[in-house]
Design goal:
The chain is an alpha+beta fold. Helices cover about 30% and strands about 20% of the residues. The chain has a two-stranded antiparallel sheet. Strand 1 and strand 2 form a beta hairpin.
Length: about 50
């Protein structure tokens, strides 16, 4: 599920925040986006404010 997306000025044009039930669902999402762009995936394990 896409939670948020941002259009950014960087090497990448978009930043999309998603939540996936499992890695297979995430892989399917990435495969679908490959029709439009070359994806780069970054996985966040925790946020800085979660650690404090």
């Amino acid at each position: 599920m896409v939670l948020k997306y941002y259009r950014i000025a960087d090497q990448y044009s978009y930043l999309i925040k998603v939540v996936a039930e499992n890695m297979a669902v995430l892989e399917d999402f990435i495969d679908e986006t490959m029709r439009f762009v070359t994806p780069s995936t970054h996985i966040v394990f925790s946020a800085a404010n979660d650690v404090l």
